[in-house]
User: Fold this.
Amino acid sequence: MNIQENISLKAYNTFGIDKKARFFTRVHSNEEVIKALKTAKDKYVPAYILGGGSNILLTKDLFALVVKIDIKGVQVLKEDGENIWVKVGAGEIWHDFVLKAIAHKWAGIENLSLIPGTVGASPMQNIGAYGVEIKEVFEELEAVNRETLSVEKFNHSQCQFGYRESIFKNKAKDKYVITHVTFKLSKKPHFNISYGSISNTLKKMGYNQHDLTIEAISKAVIHIRQEKLPDPQEIGNAGSFFKNPTIPEKHFQTLKEEYPDIPGFPLEKGVKIPAAWLIDKAGWKGKTFGEIGVHKNQPLVLVNYGKGEGEAIKALSEKIQKDIQAKFGISLQPEVNFV
Assistant:
């Protein structure tokens, strides 16, 4: 295993923040993960696990052994007439796996096209988009226990999935390294096109109900995301910076009186409000502050225009949170992890 020293992490985070890792290594198997964790202990530094770097904001140099997860592979475990179970390495790029599934006509994740990051982060974040969440296709995962160095398996219930979260962001935070994820995908697709503008986009692209495919849905989602979200290769960002908040029905009705155009999506408990609408309504959309700002097309995205610092982006996010709290009485929670 190759251990490098004082390595810039600029190329390893989608915000493009130039912070350094005291030590850096890549791992390609469970065994190498265990070896890296042992190495970190030997060097008396913490081990920081890095996937695609698409959901982090670096605010400082890391005095740690940064362990880049490069575990690859897509393996069919079993299948029947309805479903197929596929085990995927945590280091696989999520969108590449989605495209592979579509090519094999494995349905269930086409609505999650073009989400940045790696497969290993997908259950940790319970990633979701356009009416679909990972928990709907998740079967189990393998993870290395950072304390015992043993490989453990987690089933669906053990992951304790919630909105953009799981046990790995709560009780088990920093206690495991996810190495493989198994998905249960369908051979007989159930098209989900009711969320957002997927249906209208499909019509504009020339598709109708009779020739609908998972590939068509994927193309529509990619089209929508590319129109709304900046490409991290061109402008540093981590996608949606804040979670969509849920507020009590009574609070929503009070806001509705003052803001008749406020959108809301009823849930079992409360109403979900689009964070993008709140930020836009508060006047933050398109604002720039030196090298950072709020994206001109999607106010949910904070951006680094070149040489921005993580500390500045964090400070901007906190100003937005305070303003939204003051104007609407709503607490915005970051979806991005501060490091």
